[in-house]
Prior knowledge:
This protein is an alpha/beta fold.
Amino acid sequence: MFDLPNNPNINSILQHFYENNKIIAAVCHGPACFIGATLKNGKSLLAGHSITGFTNEKEIPFLLEDELLKNGANYIKASECSDHIEVDDNIITGPNPQSSKSVAKAIIKKLNNQSKE
């Protein structure tokens, strides 16, 4: 968890994927990689996007929900242990392991739709 936020290598990859219309997905603690991620114009990658991930009730080194909100995300809180995902443009997130299958299905659906374009 400590090496995900503000990581220049992760930021570079996220920036490239986002600005080249590629799918970005994260589950559980994974959205921590979005913290501090910016686009080439300096704007937060999260700004205005609906994102989910572990809630503040979970024990992690920092409060992921709060950090996602600080970075401009529209954080969507789901019931603990529920299968829930957020799909916002090409960013797909799930708050917990129970959401992994739904995130994978959403990625496949996106890829299928992109191949038809």
